[in-house]
Write a structure and sequence with these properties.
The protein has 373 residues and is an alpha/beta fold. The chain is built from 13 helices and 14 strands. Helices cover 40% and strands 16% of the residues.
Amino acid sequence: MTAPPAHACSATAIDLAGRRITSFGGCNYLGLAQHPGVVRAAADAMARYGLSTTASRETTGNTRVHAALEAAVTAFCGHEAGLLVPDGYTANIAAMQALARVGVRAAVLDERAHASLRDAAQAAGMRVSTFTHLDAADAHAALRACDGPAVLATDSVFSADGALAPSAALLESLRPGDHLLLDDCHGLAVLGREGRGTPDHLGLRSDRLVVTVTLAKGLGCAGGLVMGPRNLVDTATRHATAYICTTPCSPALAAAALESLRALTGEPDRLARLRANTAALRGRLAGAFGVDRDHPVPIIAFTAGTPDDMMAMHTATLSAGMLAPLVSYPGGPAPVYFRLSVSSEHTTDDIDRLAELLCEHAPDTLNETGTAR
Ligand SMILES: Cc1ncc(COP(=O)(O)O)c(C=O)c1O
């Protein structure tokens, strides 16, 4: 479903045809897309560099802000090396192109992996197979069926329902010569110490771990990175056409993302509020909808009765000024489901009102709760 076009947005509200709606959509987990310092950094860089580098970083389109951003995100996430590309989708393509270049011919994907991982493996000419969602034993069996080096690839935090991949077990299941590619687009700025991401949250370190991120969600800007062992990142830099043949994100957005990273570490209250709000909304929805109150991810997905029941809940909630997105995005718990996204900028009142509205308009017949992420 394509959402109606918004006229304006704040961290937690959208203007829809003149009506101000409190939104639990998007992935603006820390409100950094509207942070005054971040917006100012974009404006300053725009005055200095203009809107676009108009060329690939490999030719004449590299700037100091792109290079500084690349180094800062890579160091923050604790990787040996990193490469900044235009966005998270392209990061997956660049990662798979580099892996193919070092001899990886097969990709084994979680069956619900983000479409960009599948597209990337196919574009890199790999044989693609899948393993059962979140099942590390099945991933291991699928790897054993591969001839030669393979890459296991999965979202570390699934965008549709917030599930966490069994990343540590996946890493352990690798054979010599295999790699694990984690798409941490929803882990960066959310999980781990100061928001360093899922590998930090789980204490994962390995020279066979490759991580991709977007800077468009938790950091609220644009851009993507491939991070991991230096040899692989160097290979991506020299050979990945997804890097060599693309114009990077606007210098304005690169400067903004650098400032976002500073705000993430310099204003730790934001992450603390995100975590408190996540726990609060999960707690409010646990009883009625079977939501797992202890899951640390600010994406909350659940079903409530039939699609018609949910549409009625969605409409009633929207009429009361709150957007609880009802989506059919692939990889969710059902063909149609609620996917709520919590922000550090939601107030206690926002959370209470949303929970009350959803509970009030839930079908009377609700006897089976939705998924419990
Ligand atoms: C899990 C996941 N990977 C990759 C992407 C792509 O990131 P970007 O929007 O920066 O291209 C997204 C965003 O939609 C995502 O949710």
